Amino acid sequence: MSLSLSGYKIGDRIHEGSRSVVYRAVRESDNQPVIIKALKTAYPTHRDISRFKYGYEILKSLNIHGVARAYGLEKHNNSLALILEYIKGESLKNFIQSNTIELKDFLHIATPSII
Length: 115
What we know:
Layout: E1 8-16, E2 20-27, E3 32-39, H1 46-61, E4 70-76, E5 79-85, H2 92-98, H3 103-110
Antiparallel strand pairs: 1-2, 2-3, 3-5, 4-5
């Protein structure tokens, strides 16, 4: 699946799941790097759209360091695209594949303290 969204220069695909695909992009109006998460199917179900909107509302309400802020929800053809803050980093999957990590460190990352 390739993505074309007005106002954004789409970069490389960084993740593809069963229902969505995630791209790096640049918002053309201000050259701001962003992440775009789009539903994969050209004709998503009402349930898929509802879940996507619900995820957007949850992200929009959060203000937690390290959690990407939701900038907006854009119509994309017959579907939706979620515009997210770009946070530089490496996926945990890639990190684990390329590094040896001690169990205690993995548990610290996987279950951070909420204190």
